[in-house]
Design brief:
By secondary structure, the protein is mainly alpha-helical. The chain folds into two domains: 1-102, Multidrug-efflux Transporter Regulator, Chain: A, Domain 2, CATH 1.10.1660.10; 103-179. Helix content is 70%, strand content 4%. It contains six helices and four strands, in the order H-H-E-E-H-H-H-E-E-H. The protein has helices at residues 8-15, 19-28, 45-59, 64-71, 76-85, 104-178, and strands spanning 34-35, 41-42, 88-89, 92-93. The strands form two sheets. Strands 1-2 form a two-stranded antiparallel sheet. Strand 1 and strand 2 form a beta hairpin. The chain is elongated and about 120 Å long. Mean pLDDT is 78; it is low at 87-101.
Length: 179
């Protein structure tokens, strides 16, 4: 079987991406695009398929971070099932009437991922709430310590004031008694 390769210009035409976008995606999605002896990129059908897959996911509203996770998914058969369930064309997904129905395994996988995401979100919300409570308690304890410190300072000042009053009155008493 003959391995077909494509030039950069041909890839741009087939995918609808600009060359700068393809270079960016090569780094962003860690695409291993082969190069010829002169260092020019040589694209295979697999590279075209990957770029079209990325474009289709983008058209569906996925972020680059989400697409990276999908591409880096360890379970390759799952990705193949998802890719097979999605009809991708050069312009993205074809119209809804022509899209194949997702099979039960893919729907089950998607449902499990949504449940996992929801549980992670709930856990994060609880952690944030717990952290906020700990912060409030900590601030409360700091304020109590400051109040206690201030009360000690007030007591100390009262003692000094009392001492000074006694000292001044005793001097006057002594002065007037001697005279």
């Amino acid at each position: 079987m003959e391995n077909l390769t494509y030039t950069f210009k041909e890839i741009c035409e087939k995918t609808g991406y600009k060359s700068s976008v393809i270079r960016y995606y090569e780094k962003e999605f860690k695409l291993n695009i082969l190069r010829d002896t002169n260092g020019r990129r040589v694209f295979s059908q697999k590279d075209i398929d990957r770029l079209l897959f990325i474009k289709g996911l983008q058209n569906e509203g996925y972020t680059n971070g989400q697409i990276k996770r999908i591409i880096n998914e360890k379970n390759v058969t799952t990705i193949k099932e998802i890719a097979a369930a999605i009809d991708i064309s050069a312009n993205g997904f074809s119209d809804k009437a022509k899209q194949p129905q997702l099979d039960k395994d893919v729907l089950k996988f998607i449902e499990e991922k949504f449940q996992e995401i929801n549980s992670n979100i709930n856990e994060l919300n609880q952690n944030v709430t717990c952290k906020e409570i700990y912060i409030i308690l900590s601030e409360n304890l700091k304020l109590k310590m400051e109040i206690k410190q201030k009360s000690y300072e007030v007591m100390e000042l009262k003692e000094k004031l009392k001492y000074e009053k006694e000292k001044s009155t005793s001097f006057l008493k002594r002065f007037f008694k001697k005279s």
